[in-house]
Amino acid sequence: MNFIAIDFETANSNRSSICSVGIAIVKKGRIVKSEHFYVRPLPDYYDRFNTRLHGIDESLTKNQKTFKQLWKVLKIYFKDQTIVAHNASFDLSVLRSVLSTSKLKYPDLNYHCTYRLSKQTFSLPSHKLDVVSKHLRIKLKHHNAESDAIAAARIAIKLCRKNKVNSLDELSDKLGFNLVRIIG
Which among 98, 106, 61 is positioned nearest to 80, based on CA atoms? Predict the structure, then answer.
């Protein structure tokens, strides 16, 4: 089971305003590496609500690369990959928005949503990342992009084990979800 788990934090309500990226790399069902990047957002301003949520403000990103500049490093994590995110509809809409705004080509990728997969597997009062992480005893510093990506990776791995499948494609198929692709 090989995939990349991702998480984005945004500076404001604009989906292209990525200020933080977290990545967890899974090879053969184990997290082998994780990374965190601060990003100078586009547009470059912070809403108080967002800063209260994740603790990131201009002081942490003013000297960082823009997403377009950082994409040279990040695109290897996305091209021809299987991507996992908790609430993937948000994270993939953020990725699409920043790629469009930055006039960058979409990568070819498949993605799976641990929120939706968890909802089909666990009877919980909520299926937010912090609730599912607590249920599965996964350490989490919520709204830290790297920690959120690691948690999504661990949730995906545990969901596959619980459902006795060897891949995310098998898991999605077993739980009644179609494979979702983005093609550049």
Answer: 106
